[in-house]
Amino acid sequence: xxxxxxxxxxxxxxxxxxxxxxxxxxxxxxxxxxxxxxxxxxxxxxxxxxxxxxxxxxxxxxxxxxxxxxxxxxxxxxxxxxxxxxxxxxxxxxxxxxxxxxxxxxxxxxxxxxxx
Length: 116
Description:
By secondary structure, the protein is mainly β. It is built from 2 helices and 6 strands. The strands form 2 sheets. It has a 4-stranded antiparallel beta sheet, with no helix packed on it. Strands 4-6 form a two-stranded antiparallel sheet. It starts with a strand and ends in a 7-residue tail after the last helix. GO terms for molecular function: glycosyltransferase activity. It holds the Pfam family Pollen_Ole_e_1.
C-alpha cells in the first residue's frame, strides 16, 4: 500500500488501493500528481504465507519521493526492498542474519555455540 501524508498537518494526500505482488514479488503502483509537500511510504499489509507473515521494522516500509522537483528526470520511482520475516529462520541463515545486525533473531539462534 502507498500512503502519502502532508508534512505540515499529517493529513493524507494520497492512499492507494491494496496491491498484490506477482509470483516474483514485484508490484507496480501508478500515481498521478505531484506530492512534493508529502512524505510517501510504501508499506507491507499482509503475507499469504502463514510461515512468513511477520513484518520486520527494517523491511516494513520504504520511503518514495513522488515529485518532479527532486532532480530525477524519470517518472519511474523504485522503493527499497520490503519483506516479511519467517517464523523460524532457516538453519543456514541464522548466523548470517545475526551478523548483519538483525538482533531480533538472536532468540531464535538458541544455544548454537558457533553463532555470536
